[in-house]
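Tokens for rRNA-processing protein UTP23 homolog. Go.
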Amino acid sequence: MKIKRQKQAKKTISFYKYNFSFREPFQILIDGTFCQAALKNKIQIKEQMPKYLMGEVQLCTTNCALKELETLGKQLYGAKIILQRFQVRKCPHFKNPVPASECLLSMLEDTNPHHYFVATQDHAVTTGLKKIPGVPLLYIILNTIVLDKPSQTSLDHVQAVQLGELVSPAQQQSIRSLKEEQGISLKDGERRGKKRKRKQSNPNPLSCLKKKKKGVPTPPLKKTEQGEKRKRSRHKKRKTEGGDNMSAPTVTNT
């Protein structure tokens, strides 16, 4: 049973690696409910999580999750001690804490850009993250950590990318990096989209020149009347005493 579960986890991790660009160390976002379940089932999260995911991990939580355990009192004191050992990631609710379920979902945003795994036993969080593509879910069942299969939202997203209807996160990241290399920002793109007003310029100096008068047309050649003979001219050559030919005066016949 353990080997079968390990194979299924390996297959699921490969799905997120190739389709959503997940890389080690895997970031595991944990809440108080998961720590309470681990304490109850005697699971060492720091030891068993890397073995199960077959890679290096970073265990983290949020300030809202810690504050929630503090308000719940002594019943969850052990879970609070475990959760305090993990890295605390910044969330937008530092001054005004919100329930842990709401905070975790806000950390994922719309596309899980930071590539978080989420470890929780909270059904509200589970239901919400299944609507977000590319979010691996971890939970505890029968004294073991289980990586859930990809949600239908994730499968539909991958299919849409393969059909060319959407751009994958990896392609989005490459587009952003190319824009940064070329020095193209969002503001520049907005400016390019707007039409520029043409500045008033001085007239072309060539267009201000006076137009030249058209030349007088040449008169047509006179036609000879019918019956009138055409004049011909011919040149006679005569020889000089030295034997050279000289042209004779022109004789005109009318």
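Residues 2-20 form the longest helix (19 residues).
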